[in-house]
Design a protein that fits this description.
- This protein is of the alpha/beta class and 207 residues long.
- It is built from 4 helices and 14 strands.
- The strands form 5 sheets. It has a 5-stranded mixed sheet with strand order 1-9-8-12-11. It has a 3-stranded mixed sheet with strand order 7-13-14.
- Strand 13 (182-186) and strand 14 form a beta hairpin.
- The longest helix is centred in the middle third of the chain and has 11 residues, at 93-103.
């Protein structure tokens, strides 16, 4: 069963998260200030907020897990035992660096899990959520946070699926909903969004 940890940094407002350097080539680089954070300061909250297109706020989910990350030993279903040519979702360079900064130095998580589920507030609406994942199911697909030597092309699944590095995982519940989308983050508000091929923000409540 998927265990989730909160993305505490999503609500981080300290100057450390604003220590971003934009170099002339236009690529975003997270400075070493983030890698020096080992214990969350008081400005952190021990919770992660899921989001939807609705303006109402969703409740927070908090859970602590100390076990090492692992994949379920359950066998994959027939028809899924293949290596896709590309990841189910793309990421902007900003989102890729953001996830890498969140995961830097963490040894008890397998990566970030993108999920799709009903709002935890009990409201009749669906939401996308991003959480630290300590276990990855056999039907959850990964998107590498690494790029090839050109510094632009995402590392394909055939090279990344066994590299042992943290990834952005797409939960089986969210796979068909976000397939072909692109994940982005607003560093000012720390809000993560998913965009379709036309650039529109995906609404979790649209069928």
């Amino acid at each position: 069963m998927l265990q989730r940890l909160p993305l505490t940094a999503l609500r981080f407002r300290s100057p450390a998260l604003r220590a971003l350097v934009v170099i002339p080539e236009g690529r975003t680089r997270i400075s070493s200030a983030l890698s020096n954070i080992t214990t969350p300061p008081a400005s952190f909250t021990s919770s992660c907020r899921t989001f939807s297109s609705s303006s109402s706020k969703d409740s927070m989910v908090t859970q602590t897990v100390a076990s090492s990350p692992k994949r379920s030993k359950k066998k994959k279903k027939a028809g899924r035992n293949f290596v896709p040519l590309k990841a189910p979702v793309e990421m902007t360079e900003t989102a890729r660096q953001f996830f890498k900064a969140l995961l830097d130095g963490k040894t008890n998580v397998a990566g970030i899990m993108l999920n799709y589920h009903q709002s935890s507030t009990g409201e009749p609406r669906m939401v996308f959520s991003f959480d630290f994942a300590t276990e990855v199911g056999p039907d959850d697909e990964g998107a590498s946070l690494e790029v090839l030597a050109d510094g632009v092309t995402p590392k394909p699944p055939v090279e990344s699926m066994t590299d042992g590095l943290p990834k952005l995982y797409i939960h089986q519940n969210a796979f068909m909903k976000v397939l072909g989308g692109k994940v982005d983050v607003d560093l000012e508000t720390m809000k993560l969004t998913i965009h379709d091929k036309e650039g529109n923000v995906m609404d979790p409540n649209n069928t």
